[in-house]
Amino acid sequence: MSIETSQRIVIKIGSALIAPEQDGCRSRYLLNIAQFIVQCRAKGKEVLLVSSGAVAAGSHLFKNKDKSSVAVKKAMAAAGQTEMISTWERFFDFPSAQLLLTHGDLRDRDRYNSIRETLFTLLEQGILPIINENDAVTTDELKVGDNDNLSAMVAAAADADCLIICSDVNGLYDKDPNKNPDARLLDTVGELTPEIYAMTGGPTSSVGTGGMRTKLQAAEKATSHGIVTYIVNGFNEDTFSGLLNGANPGTRFMPYDTPMQEAVHWMTHTASEQGELIVEASEFDELSCDELSCDDIVAVNGDFSAGETVLVRNEDGQKLAKANSNYSSCLLNFIAQQDKDIVTEKVQDSIGPVISQNDIAVFEERKS
């Protein structure tokens, strides 16, 4: 499996490639990436670009300022975003479009579907989407936090079949290559096991926000949607000629044989839970087939509205699923505190199930 067979590719570029010295955008590493995008399009492939770098690109404009300040970082992002987009546009003789997203946009189902429609329309018109997190306005509650995971969410939303994450190392090693000369590069990873995650270290770049762990998280999101994923060295120009020739210049993560359905994938990997439902352990052995009723609930944690996503746990603390709650935490708290016979007799029949079968995403470990 190589990008030769891929028709829709998402490529993620980090801040260190955009603004390696944090003094504005530089073309040193971007030219090879831009040529790769051009050549992919010439082969009839659709490309989406997820580009970090707004804060790094705008940093040099804020002299004598405390750059650790949240307000200053947001201003740097606002100023740097225009420089970053104009830098990319200089490389292309085809149109591009800017999409600035927050996790709040992606975790809301209606807005998520709107994003999908926008991406599909841009691609149909031959326009290159350039996507970044909206750092100028996002808050801790609404941000993805790193563009590795954002790129995987975008790849899933766009129904891509290939995700390329550019890093400052060649791929995933079995141990930290900066400390261990005998570290071995993994060519292909078939499954992201706890042992694979244990190989990750911290970021090697002082500019970006994501380390190898966030890249593995992104690979897990993408491969579960059926998207082959590569982690490659974006600083090495041979990387992109290798990809174009069907080679694997980094680490390739193989997609699931049976990808998650789109709605289930969104709930599992994109929607964030706003609260928790604690249920009786014995009641949920067949969660993927049953509906959650009022008398299954032991406790309700958090404050959420009807229609928001919740995490479902059993009394032992095991995570069972994510699901959309048909009712608010206020009502469910009231129900949970009532006598179960009364709930079953007088409440359950009148309000219906708390969670419907179509709104449940069962965690993979329970599908053995």
TrEMBL record:
Gene3D superfamilies: Acetylglutamate kinase-like, PUA domain. GO terms for biological process: L-proline biosynthetic process. Catalyzes the transfer of a phosphate group to glutamate to form L-glutamate 5-phosphate. Substrate binds at residues 52, 135, 147. Pathway: Amino-acid biosynthesis; L-proline biosynthesis; L-glutamate 5-semialdehyde from L-glutamate: step 1/2. Belongs to the glutamate 5-kinase family. PANTHER family: GLUTAMATE 5-KINASE (PTHR43654), ISOPENTENYL PHOSPHATE KINASE (PTHR43654:SF1). The lineage of its organism: Bacteria, Pseudomonadati, Pseudomonadota, Gammaproteobacteria, Alteromonadales. This is Glutamate 5-kinase.
